[in-house]
Amino acid sequence: MKLQGRAHRLGANIDTDALIPARYASLTDPQDLGRHLLEGMEEGFYRKLRPWDMLVAETNFGCGSSREHAPLAIKGAGISCVIAQSFARIFFRNAINIGVPVLECPQAPEIASGDLLEVDLETGEIQNRTQHCSYRAAPYPPFMLEIVQAGGLVEYTRQRLQRGL
C-alpha cells in the first residue's frame, strides 16, 4: 500500500487534546471531528489541508487521553498517514484500529512542512521527493497492514466474517 501526500510538520508531545480539543468530544462523525483537527494549536488548520496530506511529528505523538476522537479526527480530515519518531502506545493502537496508518521513523524531524512524501507501508520506506532522500520506518506486519487496508478493525472483521474466516 503506497501513499503520497504533503507533510505538515508538528513538534513533540502532541497530545490528543491538541489534536481534537475536548469541547468536541460529543461529536462522533469523523468529518465533523476532522474540521476541528489541531484547532487548539492553530486556528483554521483544517482549511489548509488537501486530501492525502500527512502529519509529521517528533516524539510521543498522541499522548494524553485514550479517546478515539483523535485518530477519528485525523481520518475525518483526510490525513493519509502520520509519521513520528514515537507514538503513545494507546494512540498507536487506536489509530490502527480505526484504519489510520502511523509509522515510527527516527528521521521524522528531518521532514519539513510542505515536503512531498511517498510512503510504502509494506516496506516502511518513506521517499522525500522534495529533499531527494529516503527514510526507513518499521514496516507493518501483514495482519496490521490488512487492518489498515480494510479501513480499520471493524471493517476488517466484517470482511473476514463475510469470507467465512
Task: Write a concise synopsis of the structure shown.
The protein is α/β, with parallel strands linked by helices. Helix content is 28%, strand content 19%.
Provide keyphrases for this structure:
Aconitase, domain 4, 7 strands, single chain, seven-stranded mixed sheet, 28% helix, 165 residues, globular, alpha/beta, 6 helices
Q: What do these coordinates show?
A:
The protein is an alpha/beta fold and 165 residues long. It has one domain: Alpha-Beta Barrel (Aconitase, domain 4), CATH 3.20.19.10. Helix content is 28%, strand content 19%. The chain has six helices and seven strands; from the N terminus they run βααβαβαββββαα. It has a seven-stranded mixed sheet. The longest helix is centred in the middle third of the chain and has 10 residues, at 89-98. It is globular and about 45 Å long.
